[in-house]
Amino acid sequence: MSADFYSLLGVSRDAGDDEIKKAYRRVAMKYHPDRSDAPDAEERFKEVTRAYEVLRNPEMRRIYDAHGEAGLRRGAGSGRQQGFSGFDFADAFEVFMREFGGMGGFGDIFGGRGGGSGPRRGSDLKLRLEVSLADAAVGVERTLKVKLLDTCDRCEGAGSEPGTQPIRCTSCGGSGEVRHVQRSMLGQFMSVQPCPTCKGSGEMIESPCTKCEGATRVRVEKTIKIEIPAGISGNDYLRLSGRGNAGMRGGPRGDLLVAVEVADDPDFERVEDDLVYNLAITFSQAALGAEVDVPTVTGESESLDIPAGVQSGQILRLRGKGMPRLRRSGKGDQLVRVLVWTPTHLSREQRQKVEDLADVEESPPVPNRREPGFWERVKQAFSA
Question: What is the mean pLDDT of residues 251-265?
């Protein structure tokens, strides 16, 4: 037994139109799949939207109050299918977009399907994909499973059971629109809205398809391969044209928008196309100079010359060992921040040698209070 429509929206049975709309907005935002991680978010979103569509329509609300959902399905005893049993997930998004399409960018993400009886473009899909910094450096191919709306293969998108045909909508006469005339002191005003009975299609389905229940589309899970280009960052997204939800009545598919998130790396810090790496060296390496192997983001090692007398915090550069420049040629650099390591435990022999050094070493210079910090050194390295 389905939940009471008034309870779904959290309003009383005598609630007015404004109260119902405010309640729907609150509950729909709570269960919107792009905001909620709940496993049943899509189903709850569809339920509250379906309840709102009934209660906002005076005629449907009257039938529901008198006969419940059964009355809506049979047209309150008229023997004619109202088409409301085919209310699907895409319909819920269309209602949400119609009411709040200008809020929060949902229109750009999912797209409205518009009115009328002609072909309608399918709505876009958006998903998030996390990749490692190493994968972003070389580019990878990922295979994902995506739930989307596909054209029903039983009725081939017609909505009717094979062998049957829809009939002209008796409410709008097949125009897909209804006109309302209001009288005021200033005269008559006419408003035109999509027909609530046929949802703007101009047709009514007497024998809905048993697979899609007249919705013309079914929710399926598909496997999609996505090419992640080298050099991509968390500020980029990929658009796969024609890989979104199927359109209505032969309309084109929507797009698949992939928002890429590059995970933080424990060894490298990304600054645009450059990478920063901290390298610990010994005092003897800092004083005498050395040649060391430094790891790069691709997993390979690169030889780096440590100049004699290098200071802790100084930045050295490995040119062309940073991130590829997205949609451009070349690569950034890897900036190596040198950190002189001080041992915490000394053997007897090590301690003796350090004590011998202490007898002959010079006093360090007075620190320059204006000496640039790390990020200032990074900026200087960029301009070098």
Answer: 88
